[in-house]
Amino acid sequence: MKAISAVFELGCAITVAQIVWRATKLPLRASLAFCAVWLAPTVIFNGAVWAESDSIWTYFTLVSIALFMRDRNGVASFAMAFSVKAQGVFLGPFVLGMILRRRIHPAWLATVPGIYVVLAIPVLVAGRSLASVFAVYLDQAHTFNRLTMNAANIWVLAGGLPYAIGVAVGMVLAAASGLALSIFIARSRRAGPEFILLAACVSLMLMPYLLPKMHERYFYAFELASIALACLNPRYVPFAVMAQVDGVLSYLAFENGIVLGVLPAALCNSLLVYYLVHDLWRGERGFRFPKLAWLGFIASTAGLFSYLVIEGPGLNISPLYLLATGLVTAAALLLLKESRGDLAGPDQLP
């Protein structure tokens, strides 16, 4: 089971590396992107530790983004992601915006149920009823009766809200925000790989942040897409690192029962949502290295290391993994140093 996830984790790393290579043509950045995705702590947790399948739908999600960044149609890949797991819908606002922006025929949306039906054929042949196959996502929606399943989102901050009211408010809020994002993408005059990737990251972050009943691992696609964004523009390096730290804090809440890290993770994710939406809205007028983002990065990283030293396994960690992650961190610092002059003029340096 874990081998299946490992194959798609490798696919995710290759796809992100290709995204970065096509956008920058810089081997260092593409190599860093590959290593950072393949060795990301949340990737290790999700697949090697938990044997979850989020790398599968995330792979098709990243392929869809890569195709749109190359001015190609990524709707079919999005349909594959949704057919594998309902969480693929997190990319929905971005895909709808690109359909409207690129004037892609709305008939392409029929590929979503079409691919789902094709992929369901082996299950139907194996004997599962037609009704259960087409109601599986609806049944999953009624599995838990909690506003958050350790997801570091807005519902951690609204724990006292009644369940039924929270679900209704969350669905309306997510739908309205998703529609607004789609319209913005369709009408925006901005173009280029960074804008498209940033819009995709906003979609992948905003949906699990606003929707109720989310698990901690549902930020998986954003966590990997943010690595690609950080390699395109080092301004987003602290964002990608914060996403990993927040993800690990959420995972540890389920893994070891330590839930104290979920609240600071939710606060840091709130900062991420604010800055991502701010940058998408303001475009090139946005500031470079936001101090609050760095503050959140430092605070969340310090909290994680404190947890590992005081409550966690201490030094009982693979030396090879520590060496590999150390090399990736060093490469990230080199990337920042390399790109300072490229990102800002002499009078704009932070």
Description:
This protein is mainly alpha-helical and 350 residues long. The chain has one domain. 71% of the residues lie in helices and 1% in strands. It is built from 16 helices and two strands. It has a two-stranded parallel sheet with strand order 1-2. α2 packs antiparallel against α12 and α4 runs antiparallel to α11. The termini are far apart. The C terminus is likely disordered.
Topology (SSEs and partners):
Elements: H1 2-24, H2 27-38, H3 41-49, H4 54-69, H5 75-84, H6 92-102, H7 111-126, H8 130-134, H9 136-141, E1 148-149, H10 163-187, H11 193-210, E2 214-215, H12 220-232, H13 237-255, H14 262-282, H15 291-310, H16 319-343
Parallel strand pairs: 1-2
Helix pairs in contact: 1-2, 1-3, 1-4, 1-12, 2-12, 2-16, 4-5, 4-11, 4-12, 5-7, 6-10, 6-11, 10-11, 11-12, 11-14, 12-13, 13-14, 13-15, 14-15
